[in-house]
Amino acid sequence: MPRSETKRRAVESENKHDSRAAGPSEEGARRRKKSPTDDDTCHGYVRPRAFELLAAQPVTLAALSRAERDLVVVTAVADEQGNEYVVSRIGHPVWHLASEVEAKNVKGCTLDVLWPIWLPEALLDDARAALYCAMRRGPNGTPWSGSTVQRAGKEALYLLRHITSLGLRTFSEVRALHLSDYIESLKPVLQPVSIRRRVELVDLIWRFSTEVFFPLREDPWAGQSFLQACGLNDHDDSSPVGRTAKTPVIPLSVQRTLFAYCEAVLDRAEELFQARDAGRISMNSYGLLKVRDAVLYLTQVTSGMRNSECTGITNGCWRSEVRKGVTFHWVRTREIKTKKGVVEFLVPPETIRALTILQRYAAPLQARLAEEARWLEAQLHQGADEDGWLEDGTSIAAAVGRLNHIREIGQHMFLAFDKSTFGPPEDSIARVDVVSVVGCNTQLKSLARAAGSDWALANHQCRRTFSYNVANSRLGRMGLVFLKWQLKHATMSWTELYAANPLQDLAIYRELEEEQTRARIDLMEGWMQADAPLSGGAGKKLLQTRAIPVRDLDELLLHTAESIEIRSTGHAWCLSGTRVCNGQGVYEPTNCANCSQSVIDLNHAAAWQAIHLDNLRLAAVIDCGPAVVQKAQRAIQRSKQVLRELGVPLPSAGQRAAYAKSEVVS
After folding, report:
1. What is the pTM of this model?
2. What is the DSSP code (8-state) at residue 535?
3. Across the strands, what pairs with 535?
4. What is the pLDDT of residue 7?
5. Phi and psi dihedrals of 346, rounded to 5?
6. DSSP letter string, 289-308
7. Please, are residues 520 and 471 in contact by the beta-carbon 8 Å criterion?
8. CB 573 within 8 A of CB 547
9. pLDDT tens digits, residue range 154-189?
């Protein structure tokens, strides 16, 4: 028996009691006709779905016996001829949920739910029933995704182990006191969100009381809501007030280091490709992996894509267009988290260059996938033996599922060899697959170390950093270079970008707005500190308001941040938008000293010292007439006033001398 057959039969041995799951379903070969939509054809392949077989399964389990429940199909796959095959049933010791998950950046082996045989049968039966109902219709009317079911099943095992350790054999024996004690024991080690996931199965048992054999006899949360019992609020407060972003922003110094390193890696990519094509290095060499990882970082940090969207990029899925003399570059991918389907992200030209290089990297790996697809087609054409196994020891359902997956990812570019699985035609060669989200995080950390940084780089940091950079550039707390680079035009509003492309991912813009609101709140919170010196017309008004008691400062800051515009002139914060001076303060800094719409804080102290030195130099010019001298004297008084209000000393004689010397040299 070949080594691959031995390995696969060992893995699937616990399912051999239902060998018919390896062949067509008992309902017979079914055919389905479905017109592909734009979302389906985005990446060139429409995955067959076992719609008829799954639709024939009961939505409720209430009237079924245990034996009947065990035969209910949880997951199934279909081939291109429309034949449908059972993958998992409720009674199987393992639920394989990969066919129910759209995201390709997750390993299939991590999408299994393993039901341990040591659990009491009554607990196991009801846990399966609750998760099946959540998957089919959801506790709130929205069916759970395969990944959500897998996560809930994994977390449920901790809960079931605890219940069993208490000597309880059914959910009917579980009381609210048992759960409250368990939650209290989790609080020192888990966050409320994690606690919620850990005990979510009990909430499903409570909601689906008619679907289980041994329902709970009392409210498991003792009169509280499920979220309250876990330490969460009933209402999802989406405002940034009072919340601390858990994902850190990549520091600017680290961004510069990483960007320079990635650009250097891509500069020598062609040399590596030539060496690979000539057979001097392997497809899996360290240098080529760094090319892929450099593109991964650059794409995520310059577009704001989630990892699932970034790793879903396929060959040639980018385009450029010119609008009013400005060139825009768009990358098309599939948004999965909120089920928006096909979306396009605005990217700088550097990202297009990186993706073009990545396409060269991916070509041999895509060829390897095509080779495996042909091998699987031949195996399926040859058919299964009398026990339902193919020649290599896999079931028809497993082979069909893998073939569908290969055809879906055949044009993906973020690919790698998955050393945990081996595929045909040679068992010694690992299968090619999309880099997983865990693998991407690992590779990004390795990339940072190779660049000479000790920053623990991760996927979502790139999205948060993108939002932070854009929001703070618009606010003026950073230079406008990034904003011009990313959005192509410093004055273009997000609303205009919505109109420019109906396929834009609106979620990233909501995050940008939230990040900008958070930045405004941080800024204004500093203004409200009792010992913070302020100048400018609006700054003086803020000094007066500090003496007025505020019932809810957080609410006030949120309301203000959402209703006013704050721009930086480099020497003041301007609250006027485009009104009042119409931007004259940018060119005449002293106009901001007494403007009713300006706030000047200690961040501007160095700027005003330089302004004061400029004013002194202008006053020294005596051959331009009395008007210039008078204007210079007024400017000196204003800059002196600002520095005094900020508690900053006037430039010393040494600073004035150094300034004068620098002017002579220049």
Report:
1. 0.75
2. B
3. 600
4. 36
5. -75, 130
6. HHHHHHHHHHHHHHH---HH
7. no
8. no
9. 999 999 999 999 999 999 999 999 999 999 999 999
